[in-house]
Structures are given as structure tokens and as C-alpha cells.
Design goal:
The radius of gyration is 18 Å and the shape is globular. Strands 7-6-5-8-9-10-11-12-14-13 form a 10-stranded mixed sheet. A 4-stranded antiparallel sheet has the order 2-1-3-4, with no helix packed on it. It is α/β, with parallel strands linked by helices. About 30% of the residues lie in helices and about 25% in strands. The protein has a domain of about 190 residues: Rossmann fold (3-Layer(aba) Sandwich), CATH 3.40.50.150. Strand 5, helix 5 and strand 6 form a beta-alpha-beta unit. Helix 1 packs across helix 4.
Length: about 290
Amino acid sequence: MEDRSTKYRAFYAQLICAAAKTADPRIEQAFRTVRREPFVGPGPWSISFGSHPYVVTPDDDPAFIYQNALLALDAARGLNIGMPGAHAYWLSGCAVREGETVVQIGAGSGYYTAILAHLVGPGGRVHAYEIDSRLSALARDNLKDIAHVDVRERSGIASDLPAADVIYVCAGAAQPAAEWLDALRPGGRLVFPLAPEGTLGGMLMITRPDSGAIWPATFLGRAQFIGCAGLQDAEVGRRLSEAFARGWEGVQSLRREGTPDETCWFAGEGWWLSTAPAPQPTDSAPPYADITRI
């Protein structure tokens, strides 16, 4: 069975990197190396493509889990291991490097935690936060042999987050948590779904500059996620839906002070997104149309 799994992973890694339009060999190698079997549990499995209903596989052939599809961790709650092609794209966009420290919010059963651990290598560190006790126990068991990963059963919205080069959030939020922004080192990247629960939003990447209150920001595409506890707001979700309907590709910066002006795309409490560039612009990312719901 392991030989078959190895063969499937080789195809799967190429498939999702093609879907993500990334040529980064490190990302392909990560998806080729990390086995999905421990993270999805025993089959048969419930699989979905985007917003489509789940389909139950006829048996536990691992070929079914090496697809560019959502895999249910809890179908009743809509909790999934997310669309790998979308994650490959986002990981390419934030350019996780060897030796970096990553904070992951919403680890689930730990699959993308393992991918992040592969990207940072043994000289790096991944701190994974998962508030659901069952999922955090699964993640801890699945990742126990990776020395540079630790799993914390608690909220990832906290003032004592480790200093990070990358914060990778797998839960939808109505705003960027101040604690995430404060934990970033200069040059650090926050990638999170600006998408309250039930809202089709976008995966936003914010980069911390060396100084100042104007931070480079860009959307890496549309996204819909299970909501992040503590960062939900139905009214903000309604306004965000309206903002996305007007277009979102022009966003270039996050402003943490000042009065929103004519360049404002969306304003939250104490922050706003602008179509004007920041003093230190980030590299642009290619367009990506896939939608993921996690």
C-alpha cells in the first residue's frame, strides 16, 4: 500500500501545483512528501469540491484522498482539510522560507501544519493553534514525530503569541486580529481569510514594514472558511460581501491609523484597506480563481 501511496502523492503534488500555478519545487516536494493518510483518518471518506455536496468514497483506497478536493474531518459541522491547490497557491504567495518561524491558527488535524514544517525545515519552527479539543488531540498525535512543531489547544487570538515570520490562518475573520499584527517580525507576512463565517471573502496577505502604520497588503484570491471564534461580526460580513461585489483586486495596503479617504476599499474599527500602495510594496501574486471552504 505504501508504494501505491507514494505513486499517488507524486501525481497529486504535480496536480495541485499545476492548479496553483506555482513552479516552486519546495512546495511540490512538501506535498509529495507528507502522507495524507494519518490526517484524514480511516476511510471511506467524505469528499467535496468547493461548495458542492459531500460524496462518500466507495472504499478506503488512498487514491481518493490524493485529489484537489476538500476532505471532511467533521461533515456535520462542515470542518474540512482544505483544498490543497488553494493552499499551495497561498503558501507560494507568502513564500515560507527555511529557518523561519510560523504561527498557524486553526491547525485542524495537522495536515497543513506538516506541510509548513516541511517548508521551514528542522532549522525553523511551527507553532500550531487549534481550539477544538478533538482536533488538537489528533494534530498532536499526527505531528508527534516532528520535533520542530508544537500544537497548542487554545485560541490563536492572544497577546503572548510567539514572534513570527509568517502567521497562517485557517479560519475566517471579520478583521485582522491586532495580536496577529503585533506578533509579526519586520518583513513578516500575515495570511488570513477576511471572511466572516458564511461570507465569501478573500485570502488577504499583509506584510509588516520596518516602520510606519501603512502596511503592504494584497488579496491572494477569494476564500470561504469556517469562522474564527472571537472574530465574527454579521454586519461586517454584510458590508464585506458588498465590497467584494464591487471588486477587490485593487487593494494594495492596510492602514492602521488615519481617516479613510477616497482610496478606501473597506474600513473596519481602527483599520482600513486602501487601493493606494504602501511605501514598501510587496511582490504581486498571479490571479487565482479557486474557492476553498475549510
